[in-house]
Amino acid sequence: MASYAKDPRCIAMAKALVPLLRRSCPENASGFGGSYQVNLDDEEAVGLGGVELIRAAMRKAARQLDWKVETIGWIGTRFGTMVAVRDTREVPSEHRTVVDAAMYERMNAAMARVSSEPPEVPVQRGSVALMTQEFRAAVAEA
């Protein structure tokens, strides 16, 4: 597998992603518990360099925040291309309550979206729809 670490597109994308990943962490959790997912059209992902380059940029950005990283990337899902990164570090006990509460809130919001009847529930902080919009804007600026 090719390394994208020195690819200028990867470097620029990672630079744009750092503040987005930082913001994905729950407030008052000292940077723990972050995760970020984008759902792009397959053609859009290819235009940005492909799923592997996007994953590499997410890993690079997450490592700059000292995250222990887990990424996924799939092209051709029913949602298009899905790429995600997650911080898998053990959360210190002093931040566990905050991280758990944020995870519970995300799960409740996801369940509300899945079970809601149209019209859709509004886009909220931490939702994949909002993260995808932020990602597009950040990459366009970079």
Task: Explain this structure.
The structure is a single chain. The chain is of the alpha+beta class. The chain has 5 helices and 3 strands, in the order H-E-H-H-E-E-H-H. A 3-stranded antiparallel beta sheet has the order 1-3-2. A hairpin with a 2-residue loop joins strand 2 and strand 3. Helix 1 crosses helix 3 and helix 1 packs antiparallel against helix 5. The longest helix has 23 residues. The two termini are 25 Å apart. The model has no long low-confidence stretch (mean pLDDT 89).
Tell me the layout of helices and strands:
Elements: H1 8-24, E1 35-40, H2 42-47, H3 51-64, E2 69-77, E3 80-87, H4 93-115, H5 128-141
Antiparallel strand pairs: 1-3, 2-3
Could you provide a short overview of the structure?
With 142 residues, the protein is an alpha+beta fold. It has a three-stranded antiparallel sheet. It is built from five helices and three strands, in the order αβααββαα.
Content-based structural category: alpha+beta
Percent of residues in beta strands? Answer: 15-25%
Order of helices and strands: HEHHEEHH
Uncertain stretches of 5 or more adjacent residues: none
Give the total of beta strands. Answer: 3
What's the total helix number? 5
Q: Sketch the major β-sheet.
A: 3 strands, antiparallel
- N-to-C CA distance: 25 Å
Which geometry do the CA atoms define? globular
Q: Spatial order of the strands in the main sheet?
A: 1-3-2
Average pLDDT, to the nearest integer?
89
Helix percent band: 40-55%
**Rounded Rg:** 15 Å
